[in-house]
Each structure stands twice: as structure tokens, then as C-alpha cells.
Amino acid sequence: MFKIDVSQNRIMPLETKRFIELGFTERKHLQEWLENCPQALAQGDGDELLIIQKEFDGFDDTRERLDLLAIDKEGNLVIIENKLDDSGRDVVWQALKYAGYCANLSKTQVVEIYQRYLNQRAQVSGESVGNAADNLIEFLEVDDLDAAQINRIKTQRLIFVAARYRKEVTNTVLWLSQFGIACQCFKVTPYQAGGELFLNVEQIIPTPESTDFMVGMVAKEAEEKNADTELKLRHKLRLEFWEQALEAFSHSQCTLYTNISPAKDHWLSAGSGIRGMPFQLIFGKDEIRVGFSLQSGSAEVNTFVYDRLYEQKAEIESQFGQPLVWLPLPNKKACRVQFEKSVDGYDKGNWPDMISWMVTHMTRLEFALRKPLDQIKRELRQTDFTTEPVEE
């Protein structure tokens, strides 16, 4: 860091000092500076802090004492730990303990803690006592205290302040940040130029450039966790549905699913006698289907079978009793013949009717396709394909 000498049009390097060299202490100096100028730890608009207590020891059955307790504009409690020239090895553990203690504080307790702080400052300065509730309403920009969201679950923040950080501290802080715990490390460096003293306060973790990236990563991780949870719920729901459906099929004339086990997928396949061409039941959120899927490894074979079936479309649909949906899916390997119904699939109250519908229409579809598929299997044995299908 340099000091600009305007009169000489020169810059003069400032001498880096240690707090201990200058006779400064953690409690009497650095803590006092930050208490009276918390904006030194603000990294942008909306990041203001309001100090609500110092040397806070209001933890049951302990003698623990955190340096500074603040609240941010979102109503999150902020634990600030100061360590002067060296962060030490245990600062993260200390801050985590304090965060754990503070996580249990109710809105009423936070207001009471802040009011005690204001009372203590008034006794020292002789100024009039401020009102904690009014100050918080103004700081948080809410209509009244009832509208303020203060110290919600998992919102506590950690701020570390020191001139030098040990690697075990920075590594742990970075690791904690990956789990959505808001941690910041500020490097404070005193400088001297003649009789003048200066203090530089710099956020080093996360760097200002990486803050948005880390916030995005945390949001992405939360989204992925929500997606994983949703997927697990769907898997559980599907297993339960297929268990009930297979039980119903076991008491029906349709024998396709006699030896099939329930699965977590949205589909359940049963062999048709041609490899890669199963009968399929589909269970979706908005619809259910019965169908015949032509998905062997050979697009040529799939097209051959589909075309032979389509030539008999009128007879097949007459046997089935209703028009079917025919999907040749050009330029793709798979083709489908299916029949569908719109439903509210995730409402379990609809399941009995849905399962009855599946049993009825899969029985019809198997019957309608039985003779055409038997004839097609004979044709396949006599037809030369690049990749021949193998019967199941």
C-alpha cells in the first residue's frame, strides 16, 4: 500500500506493521474499532451490519464469550471473532460453538440481548438509552417487529478477523462454505507512515469475485438436493403403485406380468416373444398408458415389424375396441403403438380406477396383437437383416 504525496506527485510506500508492535490489543482496540465501525466488514450495498452485543456470554452453563454479535439486513445473526496478528488454530471451532448457541435464540431473546447492549453503552457514554425494538424495525426496514424475520433456522453467519490465517483455518472455512454455512475471513493489516497509522480491511474468503459463484453453487446444490428428494419420493410412489397393479394383474386373464417384479421406474415391461419389443405399462403424473414398444437395437427390424402391424391396423383396432395411437417415430430406432388416458396419477385415491383401466386395456392389446405378432415372428426368421432379432 502506498500513500500519495500530491505536492511532490509521488507515492510513498507504507510500512506494514504488526498489531503487537504498535501496542494494540484484540479487546481494547480491534474489537472497539469494529464495534463502532461495522461497515468495515460490509462488502457492498445491503450488507450492513448492526452490532447488538459484545463480549456476549449469555450461554447457559458455559463461560463462553463471543467477541461481537451482529445482525444483518436479512435478520441473520452474525458471529464475529477477532484474533489480531494470528488467527490461532481453534477460532473456527469457537465460532461454530457460538453459532450453535445463538441458533436457539428466539426473536424476543435477540431483542432483549440488544436492549442490554444499548443499556450498557448508555451507562458508559451517558447518552440516552435507545429502544432495541425500534432500532431493529428501522434497520430491517419492516413495519413492525412481528413482520421481522430474525434468526431463522440455519441462517447464522460467521465472520473471522485476523492479520494472518493458518492453513487449517482457511481450509476448514472453505470446506464449511460448501455446506451452505456463510463464512467470511477478513484480513486486517495496520500500516504506518511517519506518525500516521492506517488500517486495511480486506475480505480474502470468499474473494469478492468468487462470492457470486459460491452463492450460485450453494443454490445449485440446494436445487439438486430438492430434485433428489423429489426423485426418491417418486421412486417410492411408483413402487407402491406397481405393487398394487401387479397384484391386480395376477387375478386377471392377462398373464404378461405374472413373473414381473415392481420397479421404481415409470414404466413396467413384459416380453412379447420378440427381443427388444416389450409390452409396456406407463405410470405418469398426468397420464397412464398401455403400449407395444418396438425398441430393438436395429432400426431396420423395428420399422419392418411396425409396417407389418400397421398394414393390419383396421383389424387390430377392431379387436382392441378403440383407435390406437401409432408412432412410427421416423429417424429414430424406436416405434410405438399405444393407448393412453389422462389422469391425476399421484392422487392415490385414483389408483384403483387407473389399475382397473390398465388391466382391461393391456388384456385387450395383448389379444389384439397376438396373431399379428405370431405371423411377424415367422416372417422375421425368413428375412435377411443386418442385425437379426432373437426371440425371447
UniProtKB/TrEMBL annotation:
<dbReference type="Pfam" id="PF14088">
    <property type="entry name" value="DUF4268"/>
</dbReference>
<dbReference type="InterPro" id="IPR025364">
    <property type="entry name" value="DUF4268"/>
</dbReference>
<protein>
    <recommendedName>
        <fullName>DUF4268 domain-containing protein</fullName>
    </recommendedName>
</protein>
<dbReference type="InterPro" id="IPR011856">
    <property type="entry name" value="tRNA_endonuc-like_dom_sf"/>
</dbReference>
<dbReference type="GO" id="GO:0003676">
    <property type="term" value="F:nucleic acid binding"/>
</dbReference>
<feature type="domain" description="DUF4268">
    <location>
        <begin position="237"/>
        <end position="371"/>
    </location>
</feature>
